Predict the 3D structure of the following.
Amino acid sequence: MRSASSELLLDTKQQQLRKKKLLELAAAKKQKRGAPRTLREKVWFYSTLSFAMIAVGSGSALLFLVPLYVDPAVSTLLADFVPEPVQCTTVRREQLAGLYNCTWSSCREGCTSDVYNCSHIYVEYRTSAGGVSGVGGGGGGMPQGSGRGGDVSVSQAVLLVNIKGCGYPPAVACSNFTKAYGVPGATFPCHYSRQNHTLAVVDYDKRQQYADIVHYFAVPFAVCVVTSIVLCVMHCDCQQAAAAAAAQNALPEPSRSSAGHSHTEGYRYILYCILSRR
């Protein structure tokens, strides 16, 4: 009898303790939620989220746009192609196979893919000074040229679809390019490089290269920088922290926010601590 009553008493005490703990947890959870957000806090939160997503998106876009558009545009400008086209004539075309034989190609689809089948198109062209530049005999490697006076004389001239010799459909269709310019005896306008007279391309627009640099590098980079600055101004009291540090000759310790403060104050405190440790 006594053991049974003692067990019942213990069970009752445990149930009371469980109820008490549950009530404490519910009260703490309710207190943690705090007051509902005001309209200003909601606008602040969603503005922060939008600016952060824009900054991350523009920064990620640079990783893809720079190798695909910006690098070819810069290389094209450095090659210094003549703005006025000259007359090119296809001399021969070589269709090669094998990874070691295809270190370069007049046109290939997919700049990041390995080339196992490539097409080498060699041309000759006439400069504005009246000299003839063209293909000499033999050799499948990259050409080398030399200039003398106003005329240009090279051993080989290579025709490329662009400075990198590659692109992605539908902008670049290598099958159409090879059919149009890979037939010996075909005549067409081309632009040769003043830095390397043995390099020629079919299309060249200097303004388009500058436009690619502006659109695919300058604009995303500016957006990323501006949004990052806006986020820093919104959540980091940089000037106040610097003034307080100079006055006290030490970094101030930020005070912890109370349970009734909004979530934005907590975010500001975390960012402030991270920057202060730097």
Notes: Strands lie at 86-97, 108-109, 117-126, 132-133, 145-148, 151-154, 158-160, 166-167, 187-192, 199-201. Residues 135-147, 254-263 have pLDDT under 50 and may be disordered. The first strand starts at residue 86 and ends at 97. The two ends are 69 Å apart (CA to CA).
